[in-house]
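Hi team,

Filling in the usual template for the complex we talked about on Friday. All components are listed, including any nucleic acid strands or ligand strings, so the model treats them as one assembly.

SUBMITTER: L.P.
PURPOSE: interface mapping
COMPONENTS: two
RESIDUES: 225
SEQUENCES:
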Amino acid sequence: DIQLTQSPSTLSASVGDRVTITCRASQNIFTWLAWYQQRPGKAPKLLIYKASSLESGVSPRFSGSGSGREFTLTISSLQPDDFATYYCQQYNYYYTFGQGTKLEIK
Amino acid sequence: QITLKESGPTLVKPTQTLTLTCTFSGFSLSASGGAVGWIRQPPGKALEWLALIHWDDDKRYSPSLSSRLTITKDTSKKQVVLRMTNMDPVDTGTYYCIRDSGPDFFADWGPGMLVTVSS
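RESULT (copied from the run log):
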């Protein structure tokens, strides 16, 4: 199994801040990584695929980078709607998700 | 417009078999490249992929749950069915139907349905 570890588990920030979430894989997954946003009571929403490709319709304030075992999701200039939980997902071998990062309002 | 919706029992007893149906529209599972599957989420916890079925009937299962899962499709009804045997309270959670829009990542999700396992 490929394990994904996200850090931090919880992140407190303010509207307008720039934040970065990290996802580390237990082995090389090349760029086979996606990021999702999940608001309470809602289904996840795809933000980024293939580590850095922005899904159609997603704000360019979201960006992804990385390859191999370490990846980041960056949100520039936080907006009120961005406070949610974020998950990474690998698809190099089957599919696994990270444990999630909850982005809270400071 | 692509839509997916889950249906099935909201309460099952331990040891019973859960059968969930995903009814979808806006795409075809008979076309090359299509796939539909299931992901679940225990309350307050992370997402867990369960199973995926491709347009050509190729099936993939979570290695840790493969012995308990069966996924099938009815292309004419635009439905995908997931069966999970020997349900346990730890299987309580929200079950999502998803479309593989990638390949291998998921842009389209159903709203999810909460399944509770309790006697």
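MY TAKE: Chain A has no helices and eleven strands. Residues 42 and 106 of chain A are 22 Å apart (CA to CA).

Thanks, L.
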